[in-house]
Amino acid sequence: MRKNIPRDYKAYVRQKLGALTPIFAKASVGDFASDVGIPDEHDEFMGLYVGVQKMIVVIRKQIVQLSHESATKTEFLMLAAHQLRTPLTAIRWSLETLLEEYKAKLPKDIKERITEIYRSSLQMIELINDLLNITQFERGEPETTFRLVDPLDITRRVFDEAILFAKEKAVTLKNIVCKNEIPKIMTDPKYLHEAISNLVSNAIKYNKTGGSVCIELEHMNHRKVTLCIKDTGIGIPKKERKKIFTRFFRGTHAALKEPEGTGLGLFFVKAFVESTGGRIWFECEENKETRFYLELLVVPKKHTGVSWSGQNIIHGVNSIHEKSPHH
């Protein structure tokens, strides 16, 4: 028989359930750190409180288990990628030597087969590099070497490297446009090159025959450099736009136009840019135009004031400001 039932039972129920509201609010965003306060009195809500607490404990254990499994998977990917990269690189150089030194002597059908194997080896190396980059960022251990670099110079190198690819795809690479003077920034040149190269490559691959790619750089409010890569390609369907930076995701249009692809490129670009405090986003008008933007901090947040190669980055900041005509 129930005892001490309050007269305003609805208010009593609201009070009891209200104690669980913050627990469920945190759980809805993946926070299971809070425990349920189990009351001393034994009433009809005791079973509910105990049940919710048991559920939270079970979820915590599952999260820990999944975390260990994810770490094991990451270690395996890194080990496999490292061991595969060396022989694949050797195969690549051997095939390049064959194609360059014996090009005129090889029969046409043999040359075509070697060329196809060469392209496949490049795709495998690209996949392995993407996997290594991503696993390092996921572990919070990217092999970054930050120094003052010229983003315009890196963009020009990417532009030059993409000229032949653009010709093969019948896409016009327009001249790089600088809206104002672009300062040097503190970043990892290898990763920045890979990030820009990935975006330019995508803009060419998923363009239309006779389309174009335009690259613009702009120095924003002394602290940021924004890079925009605009293409006249197939675009991204609205229903797929939220997934575009997801690992292994490839859009419907993209997969139809270019069946071979890893779906890792944009995931890596986002991981790198955000690791330095920058950001990436895009604007798209399907079947007409897509613009990808990289916002790069002149000095990354995580490296401000940190010693690097025996020199304080603050020294680098001062040299940037001294060279800036707008400072």
The low-pLDDT segments are: 303-327
Q: Write down the overall mean pLDDT.
A: 78
CATH homologous superfamily placement of the largest domain: Histidine kinase-like ATPase, C-terminal domain
**Strand count:** 10
Question: CATH top level of the largest domain?
Answer: Alpha Beta
Helix run count? 9
Order of helices and strands: HHHHEHEEEHEEHHEEEEH
Can you give the helix content as a percent range?
A: 40-55%
Largest sheet: 6 strands, mixed
- Judged by helices, strands and strand pairing, the structural class is alpha+beta
Strand content: 5-15%
Count structural domains.
Answer: 2
Radius of gyration: 27 Å
Write the CATH fold name of the largest domain.
Heat Shock Protein 90
Q: Give the CATH architecture of the largest domain.
A: 2-Layer Sandwich
Oligomeric state of this protein: single chain
Q: What are the SSEs and their pairings?
A:
Layout: H1 9-18, H2 21-27, H3 46-101, H4 108-138, E1 147-149, H5 151-168, E2 172-173, E3 177-178, E4 185-187, H6 189-205, E5 212-220, E6 224-231, H7 252-257, H8 265-275, E7 279-285, E8 289-297, E9 307-308, E10 311-312, H9 313-323
Parallel strand pairs: 2-5, 3-5
Antiparallel strand pairs: 1-4, 5-6, 6-8, 7-8, 9-10
Helix pairs in contact: 3-4, 4-8, 5-6, 6-8
